[in-house]
């Protein structure tokens, strides 16, 4: 059984053998077993431990334990201390969610900076089952029932096929030591309820519950994949189209579907919408009518439902330094130093004479009173408001129009029209290509 | 609360107000509450009770109880007695499945014969939740998690949005009497476990569990609907095509999918296939290679996977009398007495001179040695084997070719070619149209 375990992990992780691995360790039994296994199999691992400072001395003892384990096994170890409570309060998140964000942010930063190829976590089959039951109990959709993936980008979870029972067995067989898992009290309460009161009864009904659960997850993941194919087809048919700040749905086409709500749920659930009747009613509402989620807005335009991000005041002016190669929020804009030939300017790619720019540039939504000199208009000045009207922009599209500026001068109405003043001329020495992602 | 209940049922059932309703009653609390409600609301109901004879005197007491209730409320009542144990043994089914088949068959026969528009059953929200958890515990796919529908053809389940707790409350408020529900012991064990040990814990975690569950079911049903749209599109694109005895899947197209197994599961799960690796491997197997389920066979043909029903020897010769208008198994063939004009003969519709036929006709699969006189071949005789070869029929298609005969003479190679000897001539008085459904 133990041999089987190690063989499985070895086979599973064979694609990681020549990789640098960062192993997330709490000091609990699961992550200690994973550490020991990877160590025994000779993988190239370093440990990463978060001290969330949520349980005073206990948290520090966890940290000490991990440091000692790293020393015993002669492994590199990283430890980071977080003021989780403050972060949770500041960002209005639950302690659990705050810890999750802090943890994964730090792992990813570490992995990036120190060139780790993969991040390993010690989730196992019972974790997966408990998550399924928590989501189910709270009410969910298909996405909430498909479980944690074994491999998801850089994240790899080698213990996912194995039960808690088996991991405990392995730990005891190998005389491993561990600390009690630190986890958020409220989830702990729920997880404990499920672990001790619910799952044993289900296992009584079906002793091979975990195996059946694996089958169920596979089947449900298959259903998700078929749905994804359907959605991809809708993109191909142009029924849903990406926009610079979200997407738009063809009202005419959506109305043809048998189960309209199902599609709206599929498209919009991830954006925090919950009032599905309101969302559905939007299809027949007056143009301009809107429904909001916490961070997103859905507007009924004439022919489309338009999804766009609500823009905070704080980030409505973005500063771009000369070394920035990429701006991510809310628009993805890329900057390339382009030495030689330029291709034709399009709505999404412009070329400018870099020496004419005053860095830092700014990116902001347009304002009443903005003027620019549209490229190809013989240097004539035009009001941005007039330009947008001529372009037949909808109310929402207008609101979401961004301008890239050098000082007060507009370089580019992003995704639409460049300004004449910054264009590349015969004398241009340094061409900058700016591209909407 | 009670008022709300009755209002809801009244509104839900408004489309049934002028209908004849058959109410399935066990004598248990749920069906008694439904009976009382329908009675109180003045619906046009009759009761139907199955005595499965599984619990001796208790079963008879249930029957007596239902008869008494019908008398008290002055309702028509039907009672049928079943030898469930024998039927289960003969048909190799579990007692539970046997009872289910007997019950629904009888309800449907009754409804058809006596022209009842709908059949009402008393399933409620907890039944639905228990079924979900049973399926989940055993291992399932999306279909096993979408619950019982409130309306499904003739079947209507008005209590589905309501909890057991609420139904009990209503029964007590109205001083109703009922008998303990009779149900199969093995499910009863599972259901009781879930009812008493699992669901209360889930309700502790989320007091509005049943409401959340309703949301989950809606969402999952939505996912099913999106998948159905995808499958419909595959039919439109010809990637899957119906055949007279099943369907066929284009191997070339299926291989393009990201998650091939998910599609094979979706197409074939309902036909009892379980060995998904074998099924998937068929895509790359030698032509002629097969995978079997209990009643179905999947064959790798050159370009297609072909699904077909396994034909029992017993039904391989079907006798058709002059009055039969329809033959259902394994092919659907319709017979129409056609007095006047005939349309063009096609592969699926033939017209014959009825007076040339010797009834009863027979329908059987073709045999080595069969000959016929293909229509339009100037009365030349041809071996059926040669004809099928010329038509480039695959091995499987050949096996599934049926012939309709008058005595020993072939009238029609079903779905392919008519015989010259039975054709309609100028002298034909009575034309029979024969059509493949």
Automatic annotation (TrEMBL), chains A, B:
InterPro entries xrefs? Lysidine-tRNA-synth_C, Rossmann-like_a/b/a_fold, TilS/TtcA_N, tRNA_Ile_lys_synt, tRNA_Ile_lys_synt_N
Indicate the transmembrane segments per the record: 21-42
Give the main EC class: ligase
Q: Name one GO molecular function term.
A: tRNA(Ile)-lysidine synthase activity
Please provide one cellular component term from the Gene Ontology annotations of this protein: cytoplasm
User: What is catalyzed by this enzyme?
Assistant: cytidine(34) in tRNA(Ile2) + L-lysine + ATP = lysidine(34) in tRNA(Ile2) + AMP + diphosphate + H(+)
Q: Domain Lysidine-tRNA(Ile) synthetase C-terminal spans what residues?
A: 361-434
Its localization reads: Cytoplasm
Q: Which CDD domains match?
A: TilS_N (cd01992)
Q: What is its EC number?
A: 6.3.4.19
- Name the residues that bind ATP: 26-31
Please report which protein family the annotation says this sequence is part of. Answer: Belongs to the tRNA(Ile)-lysidine synthase family.
Q: What is this protein called?
A: tRNA(Ile)-lysidine synthase
Q: Which organism is it from?
A: Mariniflexile fucanivorans
Q: Which gene encodes it?
A: tilS
